[in-house]
Structures are given as structure tokens and as C-alpha cells.
């Protein structure tokens, strides 16, 4: 019934994760960085759901785990954006490179 | 699952968590409904009472056997109890510091949030100590993390605080994602999120040589993700900035409670899953033994990087950030040299570290608040301005440097013993650790030089607020007591928690 | 009383610290009196023990042992593994060191009346230092030894850094870092032994390393034993100091306040020699035998290097500092000889140099206080201005260069006698050092006392030694001469210790 093998999902998730990681580490715009982190978390969700359906030992708990992940990711994004707003109000910038006040 | 099964669980064993949860909820409601003009400083005392009640209820539970609720999503074993105690004591001290916290521009109406966010963070850490399920561990981790993100940015009008919070969110987010990615493989290959069942499944698979590389990848990712939380090098970049920018009580919270929680979850996941799992299909060595070199590397790099970079810091909070990186390295030595004393060493060191670091941060908060600057030079002549405070700070520094007569020394002794008693011994790690200790003398005693040898910029006497005074006295008493009579702590540990035999059961 | 006598002895200075807490920091006289008096109980007790021991009694009646730390869980307690006891005891050698410490502590407390500021802090740290030094010699296990050893480090750091001369902070830091490094290496040795053998008791370790047959937690291989001994050599080599590890000690001797230099040269350096004999020779005799040539060579290097450099110094303090290095070479020579007279000579040298160095550094302190310089070219013709000081300086120098009839002669003679038996060539080279010693000491002291009058010496304005300052000088000189004339007051108490060491070495011909 299912013709797409597990490995395809895993590779997709891995690629997504790497794109996210790359974005989080290289992008200058804090909003993009936060989005990249979401990308990484979503890669995890794909993994979890794929494993829970097609894994070597399928079980429902993967889907439950992904629900938690989604919720937590949302909370994290909300907090992240709120902090970014507050920072933007002070500094009028969302550029990560310009956040360099804290140096010895 | 029907109501009867639900009620049949011994919910009483979650009393400490429930108390913290209830107090946090109560405080948030009070904060919401109290008039704006009301001084929210008094909420700190409610929080403190809440934590103390939780401590009492935890002590009441010390004798109870290992209890599992809801299929191990909550389990109260001796490991959980022992580390929960450390977390609660640490949080109580942090609340006392927060009560006395008075930044330049004031905390104004945010003061209420300040207190209950500590409690939610604490709750997250407590969940992490006593959970045997990947999902709850993760939720606990995030509860702690998200609370700390907000706490770091508590001084909304202060650009430094904002920047610290932003950096923390980004780094924390990345580390969460990496940890989770590793966890997703762990779940996927074993088909369960329950750690014990997972361990069984993994052992069976590994014995056949299945999925070894994927498990290796998962181990590696979980380790990296969590080492962000521990602030161990090379994943420490966030720590100096966040420690420096955050309000001082939050820095203390991060360096003590959050770090303890990081070690707890690391031990939970790594030990439960990988200790019994065979390293390859020959089954000679366990997975952890074949892969402990990664932990050793983290430990070694943390010790060297932390101590060396701390040498050139002028900002006291930044210096303590690097020192805390080095201390994370010391504790990782105990974990990587897995042996008979690992739990003892980690527990005792965390206890000692809690006392000495909180004491030090109490003094730092007092001095930096009164001088509105965080330069080490602000400590010049502290001995003249307040001899007792200077003597107390000196004891904390000596303890951090591991000088005999203080708890820090016994902690290091424990770690050395653990590292050297195995065959073959971890001589390289022990040598790195001791070299790091010697390097650390430079900057620790640099502070001493400021305090005792240099003249003071002002001769103004320092007024010690009650909260800070209480923390300093408590930490001082503990540091010296556990340094001179360490068996008060060690016997307590062994009498109540045995050798953590129920950790894997 | 017997069971706690040693503890009382070790911790009696702490009573002084307590008393000092209640004295206002401006009462200079009271503070100084309290500080001096607090060193007296230790002195009295150690004198009592010394006479008790000379009376033929056994010191083991005073041994103390209380369970202190038990690592590992309670279930393990029966096996006594990983237990650290609080155990103090004395043998002849340790007794001599304790006596030396107690004497020098009291004398340098008297010398401390010249301290100009913050007496309260000074004496508190001073007394803490004394406790540490006393404890080091009595500790019966390595962990306890290490704890006392480190306790000396911290007060000494502060005493040098706060009350020293111009470059005091630099001196304090180099003291701290070098000694910190030394004690770190020592800690590794201790922890390897403790973690693998499960005990840190010196007796037990001696048995385990030499006889074996005891089940261990983890094996201690032959190679490891050599590694441990070399590590010990480095650790105590910093303290002693042995040649390339000595630079810190020069700074300390020049910059520290005179009473602290007295203690430092007199006792703290000797902890290195004590440790080397107690642990190196005591626990690893077999391995020590194999390394003995290297140790003797190091000793000769120390002796010659120190002597040559002392010869070209322009500062009297530097002359004395290098002379300390040179004299510590004799300790190593004696140990390297590895026979009865060599070891006896080494121990004699430890005690005798402790007394002589204290005397000389005290006199230097006195001179510096009056003249504000110790530069040789500025100090000529002191004998007219300060005849007593000059006379005692000359006496001290004579003792130091080994004039017969004074303690320095006995120790050097015996150490070289030992080495001539085992390695005549090396001993011959080393003996050159003795000649150079005479030359540089005479050059320096003669220049100071009889030379052309220096720019800083004004005949009239300078006081000679006052009566308080006479006390340390006379007491030290008396000890030096008594030992020189009647060495058996040292050799009698040492008999047992040396016997034990020789048994460890397999009864090698003495």
C-alpha cells in the first residue's frame, strides 16, 4: 500500500535539518534564524511521524511525541519573537551581526 | 485507562512538583490581580516558602521505595531524589538573590514574573530529574529552557539583557533541535519512548550488530545538543554573553540550577540507554565504553578553553561564565570515566559547586549592583570596605580553585578518584584537569589580589541586604562544613540513596 | 591528654587566631604579643616531646587516628577501602622537623615586630601558616599531608603579596603558580596511589609497593611506580627547589618580608626535602635506588649552579637566595648517595640549613630596615656602624660555608662522605662547590662588614641590634653551635628513621 520507503522520509528530514542548521548558523537576519530553527524542528517531526508509521518497530508514541514537539516549538518561537521585538525596540535592528554589545 | 487505574498511582510522590506548580500558578494569578502599585517584592517570600515546603515534602519521601507513575513518565528513584534536593536548595538561594536584586533602572512591574518564572524553570528541571520517558524529559528540558530565555531578557530596557536573551534563544533553539533529532532516531529505531524499554530493545538490536551506526549518530547528536545546555566547550559560545547580559540572579540560576539539570538529563539518557548496550556484535565492551572518548574530548576541551579564556576577562560575570565552563568540564571527567564513584562524584561536585558558586554570585550581585559596573576592579579594596564579605568571597574562590578545607577540594578529590581507579586509568584526563586547576589559580587569585592588595576606590561601607546575607552565610557554612567534614554529605548520600541501585531498575 | 597532644600541638596556633579576632585592629602591641604568645604552646610541646623522646621513650603513645572521610558507600566501610583517616604521629625525623618549625615560628614571630601595617591580618595568616607547617610533618597519610601542604600555600601567598617589598605581587604569584604546579603533580601521585590501592596511609603504601600481595582496586605496574617517583621528584623539586624549577624561590626570597623569608627558607623549602625522603625514599625505595645517580647529579648541578650564580650577584639577598639553592644541592647529594651517612647528612643539612638560613635572612632583614638596601656595593663598612650585626653576619656565613664546629660542617661532611663511597667522581666535582661556597660567602660578607664604606652606610644614624632582635640571633646561633659541637642531639633521634629507610633499601651496606 505504501510505496514510499522509510529511507526516503529519513533523507528528506536529514536534508531539511541540514538546511535549517545551515540557515541558523549563517543567516544575518534574526527572523530567518528563528525560521531556520523551526525548519530543524520540523525535520524532527517528519522523522518521528515516519518512524511511528514505517519504522522497524512502529508505535503511536512517535505521533504523540511530535505533538509535543510542535507545541514546544510554537512556544519557543513565540518567546523568541517576543524577545526579538523587545530588542528591535531598543536597537532598531534585527541583524544578528549587530548584536555585539556583550564583549569583553 | 479508567479512573481507577489513574487514582491507583501514588500521586503523593509527586508532591514536591505539585507544590512548585501550585505556587507558580498562585504567584502568576496574584501578579495578575494585584494592583499595579503594589510592591511585588513580597511575592519572593511566597516563592521561597513554596520551595521550602517542597524541600520538606521531598525529605519526607526520602525513605520511600522507587515509584513509577504513568508508565515511567514520572519515576521517583533515588537518583531523582538526590538531584532534586540540589535543585531545590539552589532555587531557594536564587530566589533569595532575586529578592534583593535591584538593577539600575528597577524591575518595576515585571518583578512578579521574575519570581514565578524561576519556579517554572525549577519545575522543568525537577521533571527532568525524575522521568523515565523521552517525551517528559524533553518537555521538562523545554520548560526550563523557555523560562530561562525570558528570565535572561528580564531587564527589558537594558540592551545587554535583550541581546543576551536573543542569543540564548537562538543557541537554545539550535541545541533543542539537535537533541530532538537525535531523540527521534532513538525513538524510531527502538519503537518506544520509555527509556527502560528502549534500552532493552537497543541492547537486543546492538547484540545483532543492527543499527549501530544510526545509534552512534543519535548518541552523538543527543550529546552535542545537551552539551549546549551544560555549556561545555566547544558548544559554550552562548554562555559568556548570556551570563554577562542577564540579571545576576538569572546568571546564578543558569550556572547552578540549569547546569545541574543538564547533567541530570545527560546522565538519565546516556546511562540508561547506552550503559548496558553492547558496543558491537562481539559484545565485549559496552556502547558507552567504546564511545566515551567523545565525552572525554568535551571534558578536556572545556577545561582547557574555559580556564585559558577566563584569564583575559575583565568582566567578573564573564569570567565566572568561563569558570563555569571549566567546572562543567570537571564534572564531565567524572561522567566519561565511568566507574564506581561516578554518581557520588557528580552529586557531590554539583552540591559543592552550587554552594560556592551561589555564594560567589551573591557577592558579585551586591558589588556590581552598588557600583553599576562589572569590572574586576570594582572589587579593589573590598577587604577595607567589608572585611567579612571579602573573607566570605575569598572562601568561595578558594573552593572554586579546589583548595583543601573547602567543599570544592573534596569534590575534585572524588572526581580524581573516579578517574584514576579504573584500569586503565584516565591519566590524560586527570592531568588536563589538574593543569586546568593550576591555570585557574591565575584568575581566581587575581580577584584576591584586587580584594586584598589594592586600595579601594571608595571607602563607603557596604550594606548587605537580608537575602544576599542569608545566601552568603548559608553557602559559607556549607562550603566549609563539606570541606572539613565531607562525610556529613557523603553519609547522607549513601544512607538515603545507597549506590543509586534503582537507577536502571 | 596523650591522645590529643599532637592535635593540640598542631592546632595551638589557631587559638591565637581566635584570640586575635577579639583584639581591635589598632592595638599594635596587644596584637604582636598575642601573635608571639600563640606560637609558644607549640614550642613548649615540641620541646617536651623532644626531651621525652631523648629520654628513651617511644613516641607511638602519642599517635592519633580517627576516621575522617569515607568515600564510597557504607556497604564498603568494612573493607576500609577509600577511607581517609585523620592520623597524626611522630618519628624522630618528623620530631626534629616539628621542633625546627616551632623554634623558627616563635623566632620569626619575634622578628615580626618590624612589620609596619595591618598586624592583625598578618599574625592571623602567620599562625595559619604555622599550623600548616606543623601538620605537614605529622600527617600519616598522603591526603592529610597534602591538605596541610596546601594550607601553607594560601597564607604564604597573602603574606608575601601584602607585606612584601616592591614587586611583592609578582613574587606572590610566582610562588603560588610554581607551588600550585608542584602540588598539582603531587596530588596526581597521591590520587593514583589512593585510587588504585584504596588507602593513602604511608605505612600501608610502603607495604603495598614493596612487598605486594595485597588485593588492589586496580594494578600499580612497575612502570607506573617509576612514573610516580619521577612525579614526586618534580613535585618536591619545585619546593626544594631543584635546578630548573627554582626561579620562583629567588623572587620570594628577595620580595617577601624578612620573618616570612626566615620561615620560608627555614621550613617551607625543607618540606620538599622531607617529602622526598618520606615518600620518595620511604614508599619507592627500589625505584629510588635506580634513580639515585640522577638525583646525585641533580644535587651536584644545584650545588655548583647555585654557588656560581651566588658569586656574581650584586644583591646580598640574591647571594643568600642562590646559596639556598646551592645548599639544597647537598641534600640531594646525600640522598643520591643512598647510604647511611649520606641520608643522615641530607637530614642534617635540612635542619642545619633551616637554622642558618633563618639567621642570615633575619640579619638581612635587620640591615635592610636600617639601610633600605641590600646591594653589596652600597653596604661596605658596616662593621663600624653596626658591629654586632656584622659580627653575627660573619658567624652565620661561617656556619653556612661549613666551618668545623658549626652545624653546616657536619652535614656537608656526612653527605659528601656518603657520596664518596658510592660515586667518588661525582663527589669530587661536587666538592668544588664547597670551595666556591666559601669564596662567595666570604666575598659578600667581608665586603659588607669590612669593605670600603658604602654610600648608604652612615656611621652615626644607625642603631645596632636591639635587645628584642638579639633573641632570635642568639637562639639560632646557639643551636647552630650546639649541633656543630654535639651532633648526637640530632643523630640520636634519627636512628630509628634511618634504620627504617635502610631496611627499605634492602639493608645496603652503610
UniProtKB/TrEMBL annotation, chain A:
The chain crosses the membrane at residues 6-25, 32-52, 64-88. It is found in: Cell membrane; Membrane. The keyword NAD applies. The keyword Transmembrane applies. PANTHER family: NADH-UBIQUINONE OXIDOREDUCTASE CHAIN 4L, NADH-UBIQUINONE OXIDOREDUCTASE SUBUNIT ND4L. Belongs to the complex I subunit 4L family. This is NADH-quinone oxidoreductase subunit K. It comes from Peribacillus deserti. The gene is nuoK.
From TrEMBL, chain B:
The chain crosses the membrane at residues 15-34, 43-62, 82-101, 113-129, 135-154, 166-190, 210-231, 252-271, 291-311, 320-341, 347-367, 388-407, 427-445, 466-485. Its EC number is 7.1.1.-. It is an enzyme of class 7 (translocase). It is found in: Cell membrane; Membrane. NDH-1 shuttles electrons from NADH, via FMN and iron-sulfur (Fe-S) centers, to quinones in the respiratory chain. The immediate electron acceptor for the enzyme in this species is believed to be a menaquinone. Couples the redox reaction to proton translocation (for every two electrons transferred, four hydrogen ions are translocated across the cytoplasmic membrane), and thus conserves the redox energy in a proton gradient. HAMAP family: NDH1_NuoN_1. It holds the Pfam family Proton_antipo_M. Its main location: membrane. It comes from Peribacillus deserti. The keyword Ligase does not apply. NDH-1 is composed of 14 different subunits. Subunits NuoA, H, J, K, L, M, N constitute the membrane sector of the complex. It is a multi-pass membrane protein. Residues 131-432 form the NADH:quinone oxidoreductase/Mrp antiporter transmembrane domain. InterPro entries: NADH-Q_OxRdtase_suN/2, ND/Mrp_TM. This is NADH-quinone oxidoreductase subunit N. Belongs to the complex I subunit 2 family. It catalyses: a quinone + NADH + 5 H(+)(in) = a quinol + NAD(+) + 4 H(+)(out). Keywords: Cell membrane, Membrane, NAD, Quinone, Translocase, Transmembrane, Transmembrane helix, Transport.
Automatic annotation (TrEMBL), chain C:
It is a multi-pass membrane protein. InterPro entries: NADH_Q_OxRdtase_chainM/4, NADH_UbQ_OxRdtase, ND/Mrp_TM. Keywords: Membrane, Transmembrane, Transmembrane helix. Residues 139-426 form the NADH:quinone oxidoreductase/Mrp antiporter transmembrane domain. This is NADH-quinone oxidoreductase subunit M. It is found in: Cell membrane; Membrane. The keyword Transmembrane helix applies. It comes from Peribacillus deserti. The chain crosses the membrane at residues 6-23, 30-53, 93-115, 122-139, 145-163, 175-195, 226-248, 260-281, 293-312, 319-338, 350-371, 392-419, 425-450, 471-489. Belongs to the complex I subunit 4 family. Its main location: membrane. It comes from the Bacteria.
Amino acid at each position: 500500500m505504501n510505496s514510499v520507503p522509510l529511507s526516503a522520509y529519513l533523507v528528506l528530514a536529514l536534508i531539511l535539518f541540514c538546511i535549517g542548521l545551515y540557515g541558523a548558523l549563517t543567516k544575518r537576519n534574526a527572523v530567518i534564524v528563528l525560521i531556520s530553527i523551526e525548519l530543524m524542528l520540523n525535520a524532527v517531526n517528519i522523522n518521528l511521524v515516519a518512524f511511528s508509521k514505517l519504522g522497524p518497530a512502529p508505535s503511536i508514541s512517535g505521533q504523540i511525541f511530535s505533538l509535543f514537539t510542535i507545541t514546544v516549538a510554537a512556544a519557543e518561537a513565540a518567546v523568541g519573537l517576543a524577545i526579538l521585538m523587545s530588542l528591535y525596540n531598543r536597537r532598531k535592528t534585527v541583524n544578528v551581526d549587530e548584536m555585539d554589545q556583550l564583549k569583553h | 485507562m479508567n479512573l481507577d487505574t489513574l487514582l491507583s498511582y501514588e500521586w503523593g510522590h509527586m508532591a514536591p512538583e505539585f507544590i512548585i506548580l501550585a505556587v507558580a500558578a498562585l504567584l502568576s494569578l496574584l501578579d495578575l490581580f494585584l494592583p499595579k502599585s503594589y510592591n511585588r517584592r513580597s511575592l519572593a517570600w511566597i516563592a521561597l516558602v513554596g520551595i521550602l515546603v517542597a524541600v520538606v515534602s521531598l525529605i519526607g519521601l526520602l525513605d520511600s521505595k522507587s515509584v513509577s507513575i504513568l508508565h515511567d513518565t514520572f519515576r521517583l528513584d533515588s537518583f531523582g531524589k538526590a538531584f532534586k534536593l540540589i535543585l531545590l536548595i539552589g532555587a531557594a538561594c536564587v530566589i533569595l538573590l532575586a529578592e534583593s536584586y535591584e538593577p539600575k533602572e528597577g524591575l518595576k512591574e515585571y518583578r512578579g514574573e521574575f519570581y514565578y518564572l524561576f519556579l517554572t524553570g525549577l519545575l522543568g528541571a525537577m521533571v527532568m530529574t525524575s522521568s523515565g520517558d523521552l517525551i517528559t524529559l524533553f518537555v521538562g528540558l523545554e520548560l526550563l529552557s523557555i523560562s530561562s530565555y525570558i528570565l535572561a531578557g528580564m531587564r527589558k530596557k537594558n540592551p545587554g539583557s535583550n541581546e543576551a536573551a536573543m542569543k540564548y534563544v537562538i543557541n537554545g533553539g539550535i541545541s533543542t533541535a539537535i537533541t530532538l533529532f537525535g531523540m527521534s532516531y532513538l525513538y524510531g529505531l527502538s519503537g518506544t519512548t520509555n527509556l527502560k524499554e528502549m534500552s532493552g530493545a537497543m541492547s537486543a538490536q546492538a547484540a545483532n550488530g543492527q543499527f549501530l551506526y544510526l545509534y552512534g549518530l543519535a548518541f552523538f547528536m543527543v550529546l552535542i545538543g545537551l552539551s549546549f545546555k551544560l555549556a561545555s566547550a566547544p558548544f559554550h559560545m552562548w554562555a559568556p554573553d548570556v551570563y554577562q547580559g542577564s540579571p545576576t540572579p538569572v546568571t546564578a540560576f543558569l550556572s547552578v540550577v540549569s547546569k545541574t539539570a543538564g547533567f541530570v538529563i545527560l546522565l538519565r539518557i546516556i546511562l540508561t540507554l547506552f550503559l548496558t548496550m553492547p558496543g558491537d556484535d562481539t559484545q565485549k565492551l559496552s556502547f558507552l565504553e567504546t564511545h566515551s572518548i567523545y565525552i572525554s574530548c568535551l571534558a578536556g576541551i572545556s577545561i582547557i578553553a574555559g580556564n585559558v579564556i577566563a584569564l583575559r576577562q575583565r568582566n567578573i560575570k564573564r569570567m565566572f561564565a568561563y569558570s563555569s565552563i571549566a567546572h562543567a568540564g570537571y564534572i564531565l571527567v567524572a561522567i566519561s570515566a565511568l566507574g564506581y564513584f561516578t554518581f557520588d562524584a557528580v552529586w557531590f561536585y554539583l552540591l559543592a559547586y552550587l554552594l560556592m558558586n551561589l555564594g560567589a554570585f551573591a557577592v558579585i550581585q551586591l558589588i556590581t549592583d552598588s557600583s553599576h559596573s562589572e569590572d574586576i576592579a570594582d572589587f579593589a579594596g573590598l577587604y577595607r570596605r567589608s572585611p567579612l564579605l571579602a573573607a566570605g568571597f575569598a572562601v568561595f574562590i578558594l573552593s572554586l580553585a579546589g583548595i583543601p578545607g573547602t567543599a570544592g577540594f573534596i569534590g575534585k578529590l572524588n572526581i580524581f578518584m573516579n578517574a584514576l581507579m579504573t584500569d586503565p586509568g584516565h591519566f590524560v584526563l586527570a592531568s588536563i584537569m589538574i593543569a586546568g586547576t593550576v591555570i585557574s589559580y591565575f584568575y581566581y587569585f587575581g580577584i584576591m589580589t584586587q580584594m586584598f592588595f589594592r586600595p579601594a576606590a571608595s571607602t563607603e561601607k557596604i550594606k548587605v541586604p537580608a537575602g544576599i546575607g542569608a545566601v552568603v552565610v548559608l553557602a559559607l557554612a556549607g562550603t566549609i562544613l563539606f570541606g572539613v567534614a565531607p562525610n556529613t554529605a557523603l553519609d547522607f548520600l549513601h544512607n538515603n540513596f545507597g549506590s543509586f541501585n534503582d537507577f536502571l531498575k | 591528654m596523650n591522645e590529643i597532644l599532637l592535635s593540640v600541638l598542631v592546632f595551638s596556633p589557631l587559638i591565637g587566631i581566635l584570640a586575635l579576632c577579639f583584639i581591635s585592629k589598632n592595638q599594635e602591641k596587644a596584637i604582636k604579643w598575642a601573635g608571639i604568645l600563640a606560637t609558644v604552646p607549640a614550642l613548649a610541646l615540641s620541646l617536651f616531646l623532644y626531651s621525652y623522646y631523648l629520654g628513651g621513650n617511644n613516641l607511638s603513645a602519642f599517635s592519633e587516628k580517627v576516621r575522617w572521610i569515607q568515600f564510597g558507600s557504607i556497604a564498603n566501610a568494612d573493607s576500609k577501602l577509600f577511607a581517609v583517616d585523620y592520623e597524626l604521629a611522630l618519628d624522630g625525623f618528623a620530631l626534629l622537623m616539628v621542633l625546627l618549625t616551632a623554634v623558627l615560628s616563635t623566632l620569626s614571630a619575634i622578628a615580626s615586630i618590624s612589620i609596619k601595617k595591618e598586624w592583625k591580618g598578618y599574625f592571623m595568616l602567620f599562625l595559619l601558616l604555622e599550623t600548616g607547617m606543623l601538620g605537614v610533618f605529622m600527617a600519616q597519610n598522603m591526603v592529610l599531608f597534602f591538605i596541610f601542604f596546601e594550607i601553607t600555600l594560601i597564607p604564604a601567598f597573602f603574606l608575601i603579596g601584602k607585606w612584601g617589598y616592591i614587586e611583592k605581587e609578582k613574587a606572590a604569584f610566582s610562588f603560588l603558580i610554581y607551588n600550585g604546579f608542584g602540588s598539582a603533580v603531587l596530588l596526581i601521585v597521591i590520587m593514583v596511589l589512593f585510587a588504585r590501592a584504596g588507602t593513602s596511609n604511608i605505612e600501608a603504601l610502603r607495604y603495598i609497593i614493596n612487598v605486594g600481595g595485597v588485593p588492589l582496586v586496580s594494578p600499580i605496574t612497575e612502570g607506573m611506580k617509576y612514573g610516580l617517583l619521577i612525579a614526586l621528584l618534580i613535585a618536591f623539586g619545585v619546593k626544594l627547589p631543584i635546578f630548573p624549577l627554582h626561579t620562583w624561590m629567588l623572587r620570594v626570597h628577595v620580595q617577601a618580608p624578612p620573618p616570612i623569608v626566615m620561615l620560608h627558607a627555614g621550613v617551607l623549602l625543607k618540606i620538599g626535602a622531607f617529602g622526598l625522603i618520606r615518600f620518595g625514599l620511604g614508599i619507592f625505595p627500589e625505584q629510588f635506588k635506580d634513580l639515585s645517580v640522577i638525583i646525585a647529579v641533580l644535587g651536584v648541578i644545584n650545588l655548583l649552579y647555585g654557588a656560581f650564580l651566588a658569586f656574581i650577584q650584586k644583591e646580598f639577598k640574591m647571594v643568600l637566595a642562590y646559596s639556598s639553592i646551592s645548599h639544597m644541592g647537598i641534600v640531594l647529594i646525600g640522598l643520591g648517595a643512598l647510604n647511611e651517612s649520606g641520608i643522615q647528612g641530607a637530614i642534617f643539612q635540612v635542619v642545619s640549613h633551616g637554622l642558618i638560613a633563618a639567621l642570615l635572612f633575619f640579619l638581612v632583614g635587620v640591615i635592610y630596615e636600617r639601610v633600605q638596601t641590600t646591594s653589596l656595593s652600597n653596604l661596605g663598612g658596616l662593621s663600624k656602624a653596626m658591629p654586632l650585626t656584622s659580627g653575627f653576619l660573619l658567624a652565620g656565613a661561617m656556619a653556612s660555608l661549613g666551618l668545623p664546629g658549626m652545624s653546616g660542617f657536619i652535614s656537608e661532611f656526612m653527605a659528601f662522605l656518603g657520596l664518596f663511597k658510592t660515586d667518588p667522581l661525582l663527589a669530587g666535582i661536587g666538592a668544588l662547590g664547597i670551595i666556591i661556597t666559601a669564596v662567595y660567602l666570604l666575598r659578600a660578607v667581608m665586603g659588607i662588614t669590612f669593605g670600603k664604606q658604602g654610600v648608604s652606610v652612615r656611621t652615626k644614624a644607625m642603631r645596632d641590634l636591639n635587645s628584642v632582635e638579639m633573641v632570635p640571633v642568639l637562639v639560632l646561633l646557639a643551636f647552630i653551635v650546639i649541633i656543630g659541637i654535639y651532633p648526637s642531639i640530632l643523630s640520636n633521634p634519627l636512628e630509628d628513621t634511618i634504620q627504617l629507610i635502610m631496611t627499605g633499601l634492602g639493608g645496603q651496606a652503610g
